[in-house]
Amino acid sequence: MFRVDVVLPCLNEAAALPQVLASLPPGYRAIVVDNGSTDGSAHIADAAGARVVRETRRGYGAAVHAGLTAAEAPIVAFADADASFDLSELPAIVDPVASGEVDMMLGFRVAQTRGAWPWHARLANRYLARRISAAARVPLRDLGPMRAARREPLLDLGIRDRRSGYPLETVLRAAAAGWRIAEAPVRYRPRVGVSKVTGTVRGTAIAIADMSRVLREVS
Ligand SMILES: Nc1nc2c(ncn2[C@@H]2O[C@H](COP(=O)(O)OP(=O)(O)OP(=O)(O)O)[C@@H](O)[C@H]2O)c(=O)[nH]1
Ligand SMILES: [Mg+2]
């Protein structure tokens, strides 16, 4: 039995997956949630020994939630499948949850190169982190996609967003439920493959719209 399931939402990440899956620490199992990839991502994930789950409904949140529902380990961690994170750093996010020191651990991103994180995304994130800190009364530096918590309480949060508002809704609901939430630094590198969200105007606009709605509805 695996101690930690790692949910990796995946939309056309064939070029990144081998490197991502090779960096998993022992005792951690990858659940690659294939969100309708057309580049053979599912096959590559399967060949690398990951568990593959399919989610036909598009959206980051739809993929992540399908992974959480399929998970079986007591602790579930989340990361991106585009090689922007080094999964060998996951224990720094998971261990404080496993020891019971916190209920949810978030990775705050430390850019490794200038290209890893465009200025508009950085600015938007800092603004968002401030608003969340005020709304949820948790001091946050970032709202990144790397995080970990216990599986059952996470499911009980009843997160509804299925697009880009998912991480924000997770943090707001957890804070409202009185969870102890903390952050640890994680390295953030340029993704492998073509940018879909942060590097595109459309992706950024959708992300802002989704997060604004979640802030209105949940906080
Ligand atoms: N954008 C997007 N990503 C998805 C979807 N389903 C799964 N994903 C995965 O979710 C993770 C995060 O998406 P990214 O495209 O890396 O988003 P980002 O990091 O904000 O922006 P870029 O890396 O610049 O594209 C990646 O592993 C994607 O493959 C979806 O419907 N839309
Ligand atoms: Mg990315």
From TrEMBL:
Q: Which family, according to UniProt?
A: Belongs to the glycosyltransferase 2 family.
The protein's name: Glycosyltransferase family 2 protein
Please give the organism.
Microbacterium aquimaris
Query: Glycosyltransferase 2-like domain: from which residue to which, for each copy?
Result: 6-154
